[in-house]
Specification:
Elements (H helix, E strand, L loop, with lengths): L9 H10 L3 H15 L4 H9 L5 H9 L10 H9 L7 H15 L3 H11 L5 H7 L4
């Protein structure tokens, strides 16, 4: 049914996201949100907004919403979302930062290497461990 979801369905998804907060539930929503972006780029602005939300589960969705996109990854958006979450002491955020970089490193290791050389000193060790896994 995911293929039928539109940006107008986000408020319904949001309600569920806010009521069922744990990694196993939240991690299902990152690709759902990401797939909506292929039909409606307003989701990009929403993910940028969520990347700064006080609710770290919304931030986690924003960080990981581009997982699996490969060459369709919006690196400008990814970089800004990650920068918005540096210096977090939340494990689930730092792990997500690393996962997003690790995933994209399979497609564009040079971009990830450049990103890491630029920002490594601002990143948590959990993020770095995940990010460097395939580099």
């Amino acid at each position: 049914m995911q293929k039928f979801l539109t940006y107008d369905d986000v408020p319904k998804l949001y309600k569920y996201i806010k009521s069922k907060q744990w990694w196993d539930t939240i991690d299902r929503f990152d690709r759902i949100a990401g797939n909506i972006a292929f039909k409606d780029d307003r989701i990009n602005d929403l993910m940028l907004k969520w990347s700064k939300d006080e609710d770290f589960w919304l931030r986690r969705i924003a960080i990981d919403h581009q997982l699996g996109r490969k060459e369709k990854t919006n690196t400008k958006l990814l970089e800004q979302i990650l920068l918005n979450n540096f210096e977090s002491d939340e494990f689930f955020i730092n792990k997500a930062i690393g996962w997003s970089l690790r995933d994209y490193s399979k497609t564009n290791p040079d971009w990830v290497k450049d990103f890491l050389s630029k920002y490594e000193n601002k990143m948590d060790k959990v993020s770095l461990k995940e990010a460097y896994k395939y580099i």
